């Protein structure tokens, strides 16, 4: 299977997560009105999904190592589809949050399988390029998601958004069964006992270089999650934009992500992925400093949106470079390492976004300051990353 074909199918699969995150963002005001709750409380449904998406990967990763990527991925799709239909029938916030948790379990089993499949096939710089190509393809989902949500709202109501998500999960199952798994080279299943699974997680946790990249992923993703959680509030409540205008500005984030992803691919032929990662993390930090400055000066919409788009867009280069480095040192435990990365990324980001909804979701400055604080952490971790990778590879060669 060519890299493009593999990236296309895996990109369609990993797009399930952004669709579940972003498609219902324009519906936040409608959900708040229907449930008679504050706008910020709707963000708890997003935080619940994201946190579960992280924790459940700790289970899904080792299971995919032991029982095969296909089995775990298909179980995830089935759980995701069922939960989506139940969310469509929810008539109160508690019910919606509960089924979003179940949906997160299904999404986690899908999400952890994709980087593990990549690591099964390639490694090193080649993995970074494949992750980049997957990211480029999957950018279509978050770019289109708010527009799809707005379309569903125009045709009916927010419940139809989750009917669409269920249908997409079923479609994925059919496509992957016919086009992906019959063409992958067979991979021997692990027969690791529970005790050794725990030991494997300890090995990942003790690997200082890998955990450095996990930390970078957590901080950068948390910064983006803070924006996603409050994007409806920022654009629709604070600046009073319509659903269509909100969708356009949200899609602009994805456009910049795609552009930086395209630029990153040829740069990998000249520069190492870890150097490119550090540069892009620093650029994101500078953009967030600009965003906080504009908010402090009570700047106009175009300035706030411009810095947000530039900062969030940096994820297009950060994610593929960081994932390739995070998984590089565990070629035989791809599912376990990917699970650890996903668990930290989604669980901590979900917790941070939930706290921001509870304590700072009704003002713009606390949101932007929280985004900047996360970026500071990413910069500090990224500054020593090249040296850490060099030391680790030298130690492996000497061993």
From TrEMBL:
Domain of life: Bacteria
GO MF entry, a single one: xenobiotic transmembrane transporter activity
Record-linked PROSITE patterns: MFS, SUGAR_TRANSPORT_1
Membrane-spanning intervals of the chain: 42-60, 72-90, 96-118, 130-154, 160-181, 213-235, 241-263, 275-296, 302-324, 336-357, 363-383
UniProt record, GO biological process: xenobiotic detoxification by transmembrane export across the plasma membrane
UniProt-annotated location(s): Cell inner membrane; Cell membrane
Xref: InterPro entries: Efflux_drug-R_Bcr/CmlA, MFS, MFS_dom, MFS_trans_sf, Sugar_transporter_CS
One Pfam family per UniProt: MFS_1
Family listed: Belongs to the major facilitator superfamily. Bcr/CmlA family.
Membrane topology of the entry: Multi-pass membrane protein
NCBIfam families, per the entry: efflux_Bcr_CflA
Name by which UniProt lists this protein: Bcr/CflA family efflux transporter
């Amino acid at each position: 299977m060519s890299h493009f074909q593999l990236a296309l199918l895996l990109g369609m699969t990993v797009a399930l997560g952004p669709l579940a995150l972003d498609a219902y963002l324009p519906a936040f005001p409608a959900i708040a009105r229907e449930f008679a709750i504050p706008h910020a409380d709707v963000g708890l449904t997003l935080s619940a999904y994201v946190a579960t998406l992280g924790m459940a990967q700790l289970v899904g990763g080792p299971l995919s190592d032991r029982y095969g990527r296909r089995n775990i991925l298909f179980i995830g799709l089935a759980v995701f589809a069922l939960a989506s239909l139940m969310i469509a029938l929810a008539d109160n916030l508690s019910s919606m949050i509960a089924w979003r948790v179940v949906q997160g379990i299904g999404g986690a089993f899908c999400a952890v399988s994709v980087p593990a499949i990549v690591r099964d096939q390639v490694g090193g710089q080649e993995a970074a390029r494949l992750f980049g190509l997957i990211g480029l393809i999957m950018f279509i989902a978050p770019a289109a998601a708010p527009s799809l949500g707005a379309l569903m709202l125009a045709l009916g109501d927010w419940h139809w958004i989750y009917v669409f998500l269920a249908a997409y999960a079923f479609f994925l199952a059919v496509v992957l069964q016919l086009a992906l798994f019959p063409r992958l080279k067979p991979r021997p299943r692990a027969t690791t006992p529970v005790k050794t699974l725990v030991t494997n997680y300890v090995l990942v946790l003790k690997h200082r270089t890998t955990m450095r990249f996990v930390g970078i992923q957590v901080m950068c993703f948390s910064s983006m999650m803070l924006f996603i959680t409050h994007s409806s509030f920022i654009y629709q409540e604070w600046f009073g934009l319509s659903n269509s205008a909100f969708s356009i500005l949200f899609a602009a984030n994805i456009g910049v992500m795609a552009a930086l992803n395209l630029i990153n691919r040829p740069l990998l032929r000249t520069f190492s992925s870890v150097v490119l990662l550090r540069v892009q993390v620093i650029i994101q930090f500078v953009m967030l400093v600009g965003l906080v400055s504009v908010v402090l000066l009570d700047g106009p919409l175009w300035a706030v949106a411009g810095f947000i788009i530039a900062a969030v867009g940096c994820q297009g280069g950060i994610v593929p470079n960081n994932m390739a480095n995070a998984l590089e040192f565990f070629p035989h435990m791809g599912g376990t390492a990917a699970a650890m990365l996903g668990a930290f990324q989604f669980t901590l980001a979900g917790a941070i976004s939930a706290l921001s909804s509870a304590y700072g979701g009704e003002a713009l400055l606390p949101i932007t300051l929280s985004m900047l604080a996360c970026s500071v952490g990413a910069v500090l971790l990224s500054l020593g990353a090249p040296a850490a990778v060099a030391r680790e590879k030298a130690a492996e060669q000497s061993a």
